[in-house]
Amino acid sequence: MKSLIVLAVSIAISLACRCIPPTTETTYCSADYIGRVKITSMKSSEDKSYIIYGFKEVKKYKGNGTYTKFQTPSHSATCGISSLKVGQEYLLPAKLQKAVLTANTCLGFPVEDNHGVGPLEWEKVPQTLKDVLEKNPPKC
Description:
Elements: H1 2-15, H2 24-30, E1 33-44, E2 50-62, E3 69-73, E4 89-97, E5 100-102, E6 120-121, H3 127-135
Antiparallel strand pairs: 1-2, 1-4, 2-3, 4-5, 4-6
């Protein structure tokens, strides 16, 4: 019985999302898009494998093009983000994959309360990070 419990826990741990701890520079340079966004909608993809968030861009810090939505895996085990709230503003770093913005918990800015686990609530973004994004972005 103990062997089964150990096996189950081992499988659960191995299936969990794992990320390399980010730095401001690695997050900035890895992202194709960074913006202050307000979430306007949240829905599941037809096959339920993704959550699709609609957003209104408040300010763009990095990226080309105009975007109004991004997708993320629907499960935390695959690094999905399911905790964003409609009406709330976030600092969103995202990658562009096949013309679709994608975000996950591994692409985030490291701050004291967040440790780089996806988009930050805008009100929790430290002024030092805002200054970096607006005045002195990393050279990639």
